[in-house]
């Protein structure tokens, strides 16, 4: 299913977790799932009906046998999802939240002109509140502690052309992550976020000028390279495994160092 190679081992042996957000073979959630499976984790995938066939095909290639249909905007669906997990497994060890959505028209031009009240609400519901809701429900099944991660992007901190309302939602997501980390920390549950650089994903394809974002990310980065799936998946493995002990409330940038640059060294930029 993928040409990406992930190190094998037993860092996640005996651990069970829910992956929310696998869409296709280019999804960051899929890369993370492959790495976790390679390290011995037992996985459950959530999906929406339109994605079921694709998600199951991917999951079966790494031995996933547990799938739950989930609409994160529905309390009834979320109730059923976590009831199924409790009935089948009894407990959870980790959660990967990689869900975001907004109207494509809101990712063009002016944030002020193209953001409607309803789209703002829906974007926040799916892209930010769904993590809070999933974290609360997951924590009830993490009876022996655990770990959670969500995925964000630098557009939460700085202005990115055409990212618009999604940048605002990601800022809310990061703030939510910190408060969730505060509340769940005493229960032995570590909560963090990964801020990945531009990658060839379904989400990036929906942003006007996404290809230019990737080129800029590569040229301006400290490493002068694209963000790799191996890098993001490796960071996820660190945060979700026992390697990440003592790490909580952190937004870990995995973007080849792009986030650290204020003004690029123009002499080093490519002509592309």
Automatic annotation (TrEMBL):
EC number(s) per entry: 1.3.1.9
Gene Ontology molecular function: enoyl-[acyl-carrier-protein] reductase (NADH) activity
Reactions this protein catalyses: a 2,3-saturated acyl-[ACP] + NAD(+) = a (2E)-enoyl-[ACP] + NADH + H(+)
Taxonomic superkingdom: Bacteria
InterPro entries: Enoyl-ACP_Rdtase_NADH, NAD(P)-bd_dom_sf, SDR_fam
Statement: the UniProt record of this protein carries the keyword Cell inner membrane: no
Pathway involvement of the protein, from the record: Lipid metabolism; fatty acid biosynthesis
Keyword terms, alphabetized: Fatty acid biosynthesis, Fatty acid metabolism, Lipid biosynthesis, Lipid metabolism, NAD, Oxidoreductase
Protein name in the entry: Enoyl-[acyl-carrier-protein] reductase [NADH]
Native species: Hyphococcus luteus
